[in-house]
């Protein structure tokens, strides 16, 4: 299986979620199933069926997180040399050449992406256009809404 790039912050968040699911959510749902069983007839017991469905979700999420962590290639950009080049994990400040609007994005793994927080997936059109470019370069980004031209004003290893 291919390695999946992930920031150290993203890895930590997944580990915390996994710990919560295994340490709290799983025992709670097992207790809920046991309690619902005590109420008798399981065929018509909505609490039992809801708890079993929740258990399936929790177990599926645990497997998903464990799989992601086992294939993760954690990249701590603060330990990499600063070259001015756009690479995974850096924070990039861009200037839209059409309207001079400035935007700042951090290039992260797919699971960490949150556009509202300025975190873009390494597989997004913007990130793919930026990777390998350097400060001062102009980049053409093909988006569903049309082509946008940006100038890379800074590349930070935060």
From TrEMBL:
<keyword id="KW-0804">Transcription</keyword>
<keyword id="KW-0805">Transcription regulation</keyword>
<dbReference type="InterPro" id="IPR028624">
    <property type="entry name" value="Tscrpt_elong_fac_GreA/B"/>
</dbReference>
<feature type="domain" description="Transcription elongation factor GreA/GreB N-terminal">
    <location>
        <begin position="4"/>
        <end position="74"/>
    </location>
</feature>
<dbReference type="GO" id="GO:0003746">
    <property type="term" value="F:translation elongation factor activity"/>
</dbReference>
<keyword id="KW-0251">Elongation factor</keyword>
<dbReference type="InterPro" id="IPR036953">
    <property type="entry name" value="GreA/GreB_C_sf"/>
</dbReference>
<comment type="function">
    <text>Necessary for efficient RNA polymerase transcription elongation past template-encoded arresting sites. The arresting sites in DNA have the property of trapping a certain fraction of elongating RNA polymerases that pass through, resulting in locked ternary complexes. Cleavage of the nascent transcript by cleavage factors such as GreA or GreB allows the resumption of elongation from the new 3'terminus. GreA releases sequences of 2 to 3 nucleotides.</text>
</comment>
<dbReference type="InterPro" id="IPR006359">
    <property type="entry name" value="Tscrpt_elong_fac_GreA"/>
</dbReference>
<dbReference type="InterPro" id="IPR023459">
    <property type="entry name" value="Tscrpt_elong_fac_GreA/B_fam"/>
</dbReference>
<feature type="domain" description="Transcription elongation factor GreA/GreB C-terminal">
    <location>
        <begin position="83"/>
        <end position="156"/>
    </location>
</feature>
<keyword id="KW-0648">Protein biosynthesis</keyword>
<protein>
    <recommendedName>
        <fullName>Transcription elongation factor GreA</fullName>
    </recommendedName>
</protein>
<dbReference type="Pfam" id="PF03449">
    <property type="entry name" value="GreA_GreB_N"/>
</dbReference>
<dbReference type="InterPro" id="IPR022691">
    <property type="entry name" value="Tscrpt_elong_fac_GreA/B_N"/>
</dbReference>
<dbReference type="InterPro" id="IPR036805">
    <property type="entry name" value="Tscrpt_elong_fac_GreA/B_N_sf"/>
</dbReference>
<dbReference type="GO" id="GO:0032784">
    <property type="term" value="P:regulation of DNA-templated transcription elongation"/>
</dbReference>
<dbReference type="GO" id="GO:0070063">
    <property type="term" value="F:RNA polymerase binding"/>
</dbReference>
<comment type="similarity">
    <text>Belongs to the GreA/GreB family.</text>
</comment>
<dbReference type="InterPro" id="IPR001437">
    <property type="entry name" value="Tscrpt_elong_fac_GreA/B_C"/>
</dbReference>
<dbReference type="InterPro" id="IPR018151">
    <property type="entry name" value="TF_GreA/GreB_CS"/>
</dbReference>
<dbReference type="GO" id="GO:0003677">
    <property type="term" value="F:DNA binding"/>
</dbReference>
<keyword id="KW-0238">DNA-binding</keyword>
<dbReference type="Pfam" id="PF01272">
    <property type="entry name" value="GreA_GreB"/>
</dbReference>
<dbReference type="GO" id="GO:0006354">
    <property type="term" value="P:DNA-templated transcription elongation"/>
</dbReference>
